[in-house]
Give the backbone structure.
Amino acid sequence: MKHNFDTPIDRSGTSCLKWDYLQAFFGKEDLNALWVADMDFKTPPEILEPLIERAKHGVFGYTAKPEGFYQSVIQWFLKRYGWSIERDWIVATPGVVPALNLAIQTFTEPGEGIIIQPPVYFPFEESIRLNERRVLNNQLLLNEDRYVINFEDLERRAGNASMLVLCSPHNPVSRVWTREELEEIGRICRQNDLMVFSDEIHADIVFPPHRHMPTAAVNEFLRENSICAYATSKTFNLAGLQLSVNIIPQEVIRNRFKESLAKLHMNMSNIFGIVGTQAAYANGGEWLDQLLEYLWGNYLEVASFLRSKIPGISVLEPQGTFLLWLDCRGLGLSDDELASLFVNRAKLALSGGSMFGPGGEGFMRMNIACPRKNLMDALSSLEKALDDDSPLPAEPPCCSGGPDDT
């Protein structure tokens, strides 16, 4: 079946954060929304129809996960990543960020250091600080056309930490880490007795020839010392169903994590999260393959437009995710001026780079998971805004574009 990603979907009036709350986050309503990391595509019929059928039943009581749920996860991981996982390794939570916070509370103590790799998804830092742990920034290095890990700095910081929070694939810089990079991470973590929480929510959105490598599948140490967090929310636009799948091979770690879940009575899941996740993993592969082709086409259009019409902005070629990392430093604007340019003049809502931590200054994150016409309209608006020589409005927008949920 051929799926049409060009069809516009009006999301206004559905209480969606991305479109209905622009005033609250940007101070304006008449913006083209390219910020929150969900898609403006309708969930595929292979998932939508099972959800509708379940809703028609009309009784929504307490619901366990059927065997089909677990088997759909197992088969998806085997087919997509070549990773043979066991049923017992699968632990569901209401989201990746709740799983991260639970892991921080369970496996670290207040005051301990936790490493993150900015510029990175900003709830990592929030989760560490709110749980009264110390943020240790192992800032990524921009090496010409891609970001790389500063392993020398990581090794220095590892001696003062108890956990590394990895983003794989990386949001917002769109890196898909190689086996060699993950092996070096594992070496440093093994030498310093660090646990790894790996946010792999974007694992399915990877562009050839790159291939996602699950952190816990790299070697024995990472298998025994990692929690890998996945979800169908990014892949199939199911974020509102609030279910993530955490793969925890090591029994002691898994049992401690499940005990923490039980203490909070968070070990049951949303009924539609269960149905949607099972349907996505069982039947969503063909739709995903077509989505990846469309997203890559969107990237090519953005890159071509910027090269020919906005030379002051460049874009790194994405290896994964539907998020582009726009390098706006060539415009010579401060972060406040950059935000004002996008919001007040171009009428665009993007996520400001500085919100992702050190190294994000001068960048903007653009969500390209939308119909291509909407994306091209946004670029045209940006071109016109840059042709306007009048002074930028003095006041920056009320915020630079957050939050978005994993």
